[in-house]
Write a structure and sequence with these properties.
484 residues; mainly alpha; Serine Threonine Protein Phosphatase 5, Tetratricopeptide repeat
Amino acid sequence: MEKQQSGPGTSLVAARPRRLLRRVLIAGVAGGLAGAAAFVGVLVLLPPEWRQPAARPPAPGPQAQALTTVTAGMPAALPGLTALIGDRERYLRAHPQDAPAWAVLGTAYVERGRRTADAANYPKAQRALESSLRVRGAQNAKALEGLAALANARRDYGEAKRRGEQVLKLAPKRWSAYPLLIDAYTGLGDYKAAGSTLEKLMGLHTGSAAHPAVMARAAAVYRDRGWREDASAQLADAAAAASTPAEQAAYLERTGQLSWERGDREDALRHFKAAARLDPDQRAALAGQGRALAALGRTTKALNAYQQALSGQPSAQYALELGELYESLGMTQQARAQYDLLRQQVGRDAAGGVDDDLVVGQFEADHGNPQDALDRLRAEWGQQPGIEVADALGWALFKTGEPDEALRYAEKATDKTKGGGVRSALYVFHRGMIERVLGKDALARRHLKEALQINPYFSPLRVKEARAALAGLGEVPDEAAPAS
């Protein structure tokens, strides 16, 4: 049963709407923010003298907005990022001793790499951030924070933790470092540290501009704990309070992902569409549309949505999802083409310093070489023992014929007492399939049913397997269900 909010301190909004009003707010955000954002966009594009009295400075354009959001650790629009990077590169040719400018450039490269899945941005980011450190020295919180963001983008959570902790030693009230540390602790499987860091963040006086980003970070922690109601509430508030279309779109996409994870196809699609209207470069929202449309049986549109997502953000994860969708439709040649694209993207990522062993392990376990998956994921677990890795490692062990050890990792990924608070249909499916092979029929039946209850559409391939396995297990016997 999901946790309900029961006390103060779980939101940055002083007066939380009642449940009915919240539903209206969520619907209004998804359905109406696009128009409001378009109006704001028109105002930004008008000549300065039309927007402001002559005595006042002009309103910030895309480049200035990107500067504000990048330096504050908030989502930035891709055109503004590109303009900001070009401007800083030109400026630094003439002013190579400007440490803050190097830090801004490096952080902008990180954000552009994250938005486009182009890992070629990451070595450039590292050079710029290290240049900032050389100019100003080790007491440079801006550059260290950029290096923490870079390490998270590369999935090097140990380095992100080290850099983030350095920032807070220099500037304990620098709020934008806290989300980076939360991501690092989560990737390392240190959920206690992630929770305590969130509490410190929410205790800071961050100012109203930062509140949406802080609420979105709280939502991520709540989601990892299995508190979906709390996570949805935080994201609704964050989207309503966001100050730019790109920021609103980021929070709407995350709201759509929460809806998808609980199997609400229509609500997920509505939020993903709203996010893409606000920010056409929000490729995660297009991939989300692909998932939801496939679950609704609208396969042609689903394939198109995935292809659009991959055209602007050639993520290995999206290639895997699209390949599995093709495979579920019997289109094996197209599936193989996507898996080839996945391998190519992994190669590009590796050149940029990105650790893709998790997604490669997931792919190899089901579609390639399970032993290679196991080797990769054992090494990954040794460095970054998070819940995602526990699930993937357990499945790789199962695929290589080691179900007893596999079950231990599957329990870590799904048992709250062992750290697995996330309500993931895929993780529970994996556990049920492992238990089935071990002859734990009652547990297997229970967990396979639970997977389909959490999200009946969680995978175009695995849902079929879950239903077939349940049919093979037969009806539930009269005895009481065993304890997990």
